[in-house]
Amino acid sequence: MKLAFSTVATPEWTLDRVIDFARRIDVNGIELRTFGDDSAHFTPDPCLTSFPKIRRLMADAGVEPACLATSITFDEPVRPPVVGRLFGTYELCVAHTKRMIEVATQIECPFVRVFGFELQPRESRRAGLRRVIDRLQLAAACARNTGVRILLENGGSFPTAEDLAEIIARVDSPLIDAAYSPAVAEAVGEDPLDGLAIIANHLESVKVKDFDGTRPVPVGSGEMRCEEIVRRLGETGFTGWIVVEWDRMWLDGLADAEQVIPPAIESIASWYAAGARTPEPVGV
């Protein structure tokens, strides 16, 4: 596996400082949160820095861009129905995805993260799912021949690995895979160990965060089954990204990333190694 942290932990840092921090704590990569070309409030947004500079800084530090993590969703309703497909903003999310694929290509990042997201009030799951799938198919076409793939992360009305597996199967493109957040899935009752198995064939990124109730706490000190999850990844030989999330971007009063990220990385590396040493069960 490869270890990374998300820049939601470092919203006030420059990208230079983020990359230097990654070098010092010896992680493999950084999940780069972005709000797109119009971003003006998130200091380490890669869209605010020249792309050749990002490539140079990361190469010099020996750090990879793990993923370009966007806020793009594919759930906007069609208004008015039918005609809205022709004259509305039906494909705007596809255009945004295409632009982020272009950015990912420029910074040599292999993945762009997106969400499905919410069903509309009184809308059937079937109808909402169809809208999301149609747009994801168009987005996948934008990634063709770029070297970039789209990662769909669980959340909103599609919070589980089962949801991800269904959408990915129906999109039916080798350019769509999964980023799985066990904390989101567990909040709605999915066993995250089951979730890892369900989505295993498409899993490229696993988000690790911990909570005491609804309050984020350092990894390993809360109620989430972080150690179990990481050990299972070690047992199964997962070779993708394990990304530490620390939500300072969204919540005031959380400790600085300097205090929280290094011990989380150390714990995750230890748990994964312990899982990898677990002998396979012998059949009888």
What does this structure look like?
By secondary structure, the protein is of the alpha/beta class. It has a single domain, classed as Divalent-metal-dependent TIM barrel enzymes (TIM Barrel), CATH 3.20.20. It is 40% helix and 18% strand. The protein has helices at residues 15-25, 51-61, 83-87, 92-106, 125-142, 161-171, 182-187, 192-198, 226-235, 257-276; strands at residues 2-6, 29-33, 64-73, 111-115, 149-153, 176-180, 203-208, 210-212, 215-217, 241-244.
Q: Rg to the nearest angstrom?
A: 19 Å
Number of structural domains: 1
CATH topology: TIM Barrel
CATH H-level homologous superfamily name: Divalent-metal-dependent TIM barrel enzymes
> What's the shape?
globular
Fraction of residues in helices?
Answer: 40-55%
Number of E-state strands? 10
Under CATH at level 1, the class stands as: Alpha Beta
How much of the polypeptide forms β-strand, as a percent range?
15-25%
Strand arrangement, major sheet: 1-2-3-4-5-6-7-10
Number of helices: 10
Alpha-carbon distance between the two ends: 31 Å
Instruction: Write down the oligomeric state.
Output: single chain
Largest sheet: 8 strands, parallel, barrel
CATH architecture: Alpha-Beta Barrel
Helices and strands: which structural class? alpha/beta
Order of helices and strands: EHEHEHHEHEHEHHEEEHEH
Name the average pLDDT: 93
Q: Unreliable runs, pLDDT <50, ≥5 residues?
A: none
